Amino acid sequence: MIAVKKALEIVKSKTTSLGEKTTKPVEKSNTYRLCEDVFSPINMPPFRQSAMDGYAINLHDNLTYKLIGEVKAGDTIAPTLKQGEAVRIFTGAPVPNTANAVIMQEKVTVNGNGLTIEAQPSLEHNIRPLGEQVKKGDLALKRGTKLTPAAIGYLSALGIKEVSVLKKPSIAILTTGNELIAPGQPLSHGKIYESNSSMLLSALYGLKFYDVSTHKIEDDYNNTFSKLKELIEQNDLVIITGGISVGDYDFVGTALKSLNVEQCFYKVKQKPGKPLFFGKKDNTSVFALPGNPAAALTCFYVYVYTALQRITGEQITELPRIKVKSLSEFKKQGDRAQFLKAIYQNDGVSILEGQSSAMLQTFAVSNALVYIPEDLFHVKINDFVEVILLPV
After folding, report:
1. Statement: residue 250 has pLDDT above 80
2. What is the pLDDT of residue 315?
3. Which among 3, 113, 175, 251 would be 20 to 30 A from 241, CA to CA?
């Protein structure tokens, strides 16, 4: 049995970026990282553009101008202005090449076909120059950039439809247990509804991992062996829940050993989630989580999350951790580190009742985990504690 800190160090050292490229449509590339520099195929903006609603003018020495027409966004034909002439113009519209300033409409008095401006503007006033954001052929986004909604909008504005990005991992979730049945089926005595697969699938989707499959097997060694062999061969990451303890019907550990999966660690000095397994087979990472739902989700956020960030090339690989005052008193039993379900708000954290590894009711309203290290046994109100902020 190893300490939490050591287990995290092993996960980080044993997981690396896939380094594989794939092509994604720009609109479906959110949270992916570019694996190639992107150069702009156009000037942005592609023409001199009005920065506001007003009047485009060809400057002269007088404050009065003759109004000769109008230019709106999307117009492709621009009027020619002589000195002292103006056109009505709208935000985003192309500024005629013969105009050299735009006056906002609030600073103009219009009388029929004549207009008077309050003061002489400077050249190119309120005009966005050609290529102000980026010029054709210039670097638009560099390799390694993580694509956000703003980046996706930017690339789309440049007319780019596809990008080369780092591949995200293919992930399989395998749940084990004779007692498990699917929600919606009649609940007979001795059976429980299976929740871990939907819970973990939702967590992965929330983190923008969509190449995920779910599988279920009963407690049988041959089925466990063959299904694990298949999933490990076909995926970059395999997450198993249940069957990793030492009961007579826990076959996962034996099957992993028979498949020559390298055991990086098994059992962590923590609560919940002591019977946690992490291993490697070639380039595939394997996590066997406890079957108890709250323990499985805790291990996911602490360890699997870290592995996923490493696999996708992120620099920050753990969920945010902060030190805040505890609004609750807590006395720990035993010498294992603990992850306690909690609510963080207003710079304080409340440790909740119902910390059983089998209970999700408390986890369902939590937004944080309070980490209690091995050598801390008593938390008093207003003591500072370490808090792991969960994804929202």
Report:
1. no
2. 87
3. 3
